[in-house]
Fold this sequence. Notes:
This protein is an all-alpha fold. Helices cover 66% and strands 1% of the residues. The protein has helices at residues 4-16, 19-23, 71-77, 82-88, 94-97, 100-121, 146-193, 204-228, 232-246, 249-257, 261-274, 280-305, 310-331, 344-366, 374-389, 396-406; strands at 123-124, 130-131. Strands 1-2 form a two-stranded antiparallel sheet. The longest helix is centred in the middle third of the chain and has 48 residues, at 146-193.
Amino acid sequence: MPSFxxxxxxxxxxxxxxxANAFAPPSASNVAKNVVPSSTAIDMGPPLPEVILAETxxxxxxxxxxxxxxxxxxxxxxxxxxxxxxxxxxxxxxVYKSLAKEVLxxxxxxxxxxxxxxxxxxxxxxxxxxxxxxxxxxxQLTLPLTPFTLLSPSLGLLLVxxxxxxxxRWDEARKFWGLNINHTRDLNRMATAWYGHDGQVIDxxxxxxxxxQISLFTWAFVRSMKRHLSPPAEDEDAFCQELRARLSPSQxxxxxxxxxxxxxxLYDLSVAIDKLPMHFMRKNxxxxxxxxxxxxxxxxxxxLSSPVPLFYSRHTARFLSTWLLLLPFALYDPFKGxxxxxxxxxxxxxxxxxxxGIEELATQLEEPFTILPMQGFxxxxxxxxxxxxxxxxxxxxxxxEQYSMMK
Length: 407
């Protein structure tokens, strides 16, 4: 009857076998035919399941991680089959695929160690017959497990701090965009409700045009901010095209030609607010939103330009790499119960996947803007602002009546 260690090793080998395809670079035969373009069309999250992706891991896959949840997604997220679903999709994980070289290196060390120690210390054939060492003059390669046990808490603390810091940066960026969403609504709501002085006769057509300018420049600011925080190769063409489609030629060109586009769009919005026929105290209240926009813009620029201190990230990566590359030497003796210690190989592979995966998650979260659905935020802001300015403001029915009587 096979021993528990042999059964465990077989199971580990079976689980690790599909990873060979997952970690392999895409071949010519696997290149997608229906490629999703790298553009702002991917706005509010990943494409539909039936869409074939061109880049399933690495830098190009970040545009597919811009997830926005609705009620349906939350139901699926907390479904009872989530563990089975996540395990079954493990070999397709873009995070794990991007770790192919690192995992291959540690697994190769474990495989070489098993082969070397079999030559220098003896081995067991498939019939269970023990054979003497082929090269008896060379030593077996092993290390004690104690140093790895002592260093494990320190490595864990480094990884936890690294991950928490990166998640904190993502969370801060999301909150900045949340403030943008909230205060764009607030700005347009106040402009619409407060348009005109009490008793002042208002031209409905002028009112509609003035508020339309407020809505357009509000959208232009967040869209310029999105472009400011995005890679030029991904967003420049779409940005120019969208501005020219919504703004007048001169307005669009002024923003496109500006050295700092969000500042120019914010200036245009400030001028549009100043032209509104309302009490200056109300204009001051509206302008407070623009100061908040400056704060969110500056906060996002800080996150984009200042990573987690590089010496910390580098030390963590060096510590983790060294720990995992030397781990097979310490695990050789504990796996003596398996055939020729072979269960060590899949164990090292899985350990490398999970530990390198933690560091990879932190690295992917550290720069949050290319995984935030900023295009979707901009589109929604534009839609909501257009809807708000279509509502009637204070006393508009009476104003329309008065204006009609004057004509």
